[in-house]
Specification:
The complex is a heterodimer of chains A (150) and B (167).
Chain A: H1 3-6, E1 12-13, H2 21-33, H3 41-54, E2 63-64, E3 67-69, E4 77-87, E5 97-105, H4 110-124, H5 127-134, H6 139-149
Parallel strand pairs in A: 1-4, 2-5, 3-5
Antiparallel strand pairs in A: 4-5
Helix pairs in contact in A: 2-3
Chain B: E1 9-13, H1 18-31, E2 37-45, H2 46-54, H3 60-87, E3 93-99, H4 101-111, E4 116-120, H5 128-133, H6 135-142, E5 146-150, H7 153-162
Parallel strand pairs in B: 1-2, 1-4, 2-3, 4-5
The chains are: A alpha/beta (150), B alpha/beta (167).
Chain lengths: 150, 167
């Protein structure tokens, strides 16, 4: 499952407004709402926040992958937020996070869900990709970059 | 189509994709009205789950939760493949496996004396790195038995649908 198929230009932002973790997660869920595939905003938001309580999805190299299974979607929904300044997402390496990949999955799509998360991990394990993605100037450019990398 | 006894045992790997359904349909079509023993396997990729924990995308409890979900997915899918075979009066065994997908498939083809392994069309690869660790690519290279990769899903579906349901 290609990320460039799941993402759309209107579910990508280069200008996250919030500076706190919960606020960023809310912004990402609001982005995901633009896909018209999220049936209930608060259900989706609650699921992601609950998952985050189990352990931070802030990884290394400035990447965060907040995700959750939720009744609020019938299919995989992705959003991408980019923060050039970076913010504290309680990442495992204690460094600021810049690239936020939100994934909402229906409760009965374990296989595709796992594959997409693995795909995100694979792409972001390349430091050059992360640096380039951070430097994009538009959501369209971000989407094209991801498409080219896949 | 083949001389009698040429192929005694076929294993088809199913993973929930439409391509793997076509592979199962092709295998069912081939086995129809023969003595070929047909086995469908679904491998729960526990290795991938462990990788996600190692990368800290998953926490431990998620690994366990998703493993159960993938098992349920596998059982559901195998039940569906079984229904496809039953619909054409073709006997089939279904087996749920857990582990590293390519290793499980290769091991079982040897352990069970499989003559032919059938796979759905390979996913596209976009880099050499992709190809070197892609499951189907690994299976193709390492399997000791013959491997068929089934393409042209629409054609396979038509042929399967045209099969007589009676024995």
């Amino acid at each position: 499952m290609r990320l460039s198929v799941l993402l759309r230009i209107d579910t990508i932002t280069l200008s996250l407004v919030n500076r706190d973790k919960d606020g960023v997660i809310e912004e990402l869920v609001d982005l995901a709402m633009k896909s018209d595939m999220v049936k209930n905003r608060s259900t989706a938001l609650q699921a992601v926040l609950e998952r985050e309580k189990l352990g931070s999805t802030g990884l290394e190299r400035g990447v965060a992958v907040p995700h959750a299974k939720t009744k609020a979607v019938d299919d995989l929904v992705m959003a991408l937020g980019i923060s050039k300044e970076g913010l504290d997402f309680n990442a495992h390496d204690k460094k600021p996070s810049h690239l936020f990949f939100l994934l909402l999955a229906p409760e009965a799509a374990a296989g595709p869900n796992v594959k997409v998360l693995a795909q995100i991990a694979r792409l972001t394990s390349n430091p050059d990709f992360c640096t380039s993605l951070l430097g994009v100037r538009s959501p369209k450019e971000a989407l094209q970059m991801i498409k080219d990398a896949e | 189509m083949f001389p009698s006894g040429f192929i005694k045992k076929i294993m088809v790997c199913v993973d929930g994709s439409r391509e793997s359904v076509a592979a199962a349909q092709w295998a069912i079509t081939l086995a129809k009205n023969t003595d070929i023993e047909l086995i469908a396997v679904y491998v729960v990729n526990v290795n991938l789950l462990k990788d996600l924990v190692r990368m800290r995308i998953f926490v431990k409890i998620e690994e366990m939760d998703y493993e159960k979900d993938l098992e349920l997915d596998g059982k559901r899918f195998l039940a569906f493949v079984e229904s496809l075979a039953r619909a054409k009066s073709v006997p089939i065994h279904t087996v749920l496996l857990k582990g590293v997908v390519d290793q499980e498939l290769i091991q079982k083809t040897e352990e069970w004396g499989v003559d032919l392994l059938v796979l759905g069309e390979l996913e596209p690869v976009y880099s050499r790195a992709d190809a070197s660790h892609h499951v189907s690519e690994l299976v193709l290279r390492k399997a000791k038995c013959s491997v068929f990769v089934i393409k042209n899903v629409e054609w396979v579906e038509r042929i399967y649908n045209s099969l007589d349901a009676r024995t």
